[in-house]
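B., you asked whether I could sanity-check this one before it goes into the benchmark set. Here's the sequence:
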Amino acid sequence: WVSRSFENTELLRWPTHVALALNSNSDEFSLIPGKKVQLVISVYTNHDTPDWKNKAITEAEKVTEAGVEQLRKEHHSWWNHFWKQSHINIGDSYFEKYYYQSQYLFACSSREGKFAPGIWGPFVTRDEAAWGGDYHLNYNYQAPYWASFSSNHISLTDNFDQPILDYMEAGRKHAQELLNCKGIYYPVGIGPKGLCTAMWPLTPEEMQEKYSTRENTIDGGYKFLGQKINAVFSVGNMLMRYYSTYDEAYARKVYPYLLACADFWEDYLSLENGRYVIRMDHFNEVMPNKRNGGVWRNRLGDFNSTLSLGLVRMLFQGVMDMSDFLSIDKTRQSRWQDILEKLSEYPLGITEDGRQSLKNMEKGPQDKEVRPSGLNRVSIHGLILPAGVVGPMTDAAFNTILLEDVAHWSEKQRDPNDWGNTSNNGIETCYPGAVRVGYPSDKILSYLKKRIEMDVYPNSWIVQGGGGIETLAAVPLTINEMLLQSYEGVIRVFPNWNHKKDASFENLRAYGAFLVTSTLKEGLIQGVTLVSEKGRVCKIENPWKGHPVQVIRKNGKSDILYGEYLQIPTVAGEKVELNLYTN
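And here's what the prediction gave me:
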């Protein structure tokens, strides 16, 4: 057996120990052609059990063929259950491979009851992982989970909330001590058990060496990097799970976090000339570094960042919805509604070719005018993923502007194969974001294939420069959004799929706690099956535009519905079938 320990080390918050034990009669073995050699290694840490070392050794000593076979059965059973949770068939073996392999890799990274995966998941092969392998809160930590909600792999998301909730006490101190605000204020990076991983070096000398400035007391020594929105980023994942499941126990678990975020933004927002504005919350990270010679404060001063406006709107709409669901804090809703109604509009400008386009912020530092740069990775976070506050149904005119921005991505590519400029960050954001605004699916898949082949490992892990396992959401989320959408409160079947291509999906999860199954064949949707987990009213866009729809329930009762959008009452556990009605 071998062990490794981290304790009694400067700045260490808690000790960590690990032991690996192998039951073998010798310390070497030979591989002989045709003869199997079986190695069984038992691994425990002090986070699994206080008796971590003895547990690893004892289990290794007890290894038997029957025990190994039982482990193998349990392993196969877990995976069989996992793959039965949902299924897609799009007639494209290339993308199906990346769809399922990406989900496999994430399932190898995230398990219920275990520590949430850091930026590289469990695939860390050296002592110094980039960004400390931490939970980077301005999208990297949240993004790997995004495809799991619609893919009906909810258990993979169970570990997401705990580190966020564990940091609340520290977040309250940051808000009070650094900004004199209520609620919570989070730095850019945290770890498990209330750990902060994003801090400036302790000495001026270290600061000078790493960041070209001797100032080591920025924001009390914590790295907020000019951003106030980090805590709210995680609300997006919480709302995705809430809307996908309407699990009351889950809602009660995370509601205090949403409320603490609302406390902060009620305090931080400024009502000016009849509208709420956001000052000094920055679209991009702002910090000293060697490239800017340690000079950075001249880059502070973003006014009404698109990222902030979108995520704050998501927050207050979400806390209102959850407040209604739990019948709690109804007296606060008038203030939240006032914020939603008076929050500043998303900033737009006119491009050189005369079209309207999105701006990153309304004004820059020192009230400088900002030219529109179009929809991009960061603004997608605030508006589309994870925010989900805009779309073709929410605001068709604004969505048309965003769609036109996407259509101009090719003009801004740094590399001819890198549509959306995702080689460093954002493949899991830009491609599904383009799907949601309605850019043609065939073009998206063509661009996505080129981007994958720019940089991918032999095990189908798509690579990008600014992070790790978040790319595992890219292909599954992009495909799911083509086949099924529900983020605007309406289920839409095959909303952005080429109807000349046959496709099917089984048990994709929609908002409202519905599992949806459908098939597209020879240009016609064959039928839609809904399983209602919580008995909510299902609002669905008519899959057969302009035609009546037959709704068949399990008891044989049948109704004929008409219209562009169908309202279908359900009961918990009920299966409902929708078909094109023909006399």
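One thing to flag: The longest strand covers residues 524-532. Otherwise nothing jumped out at me.
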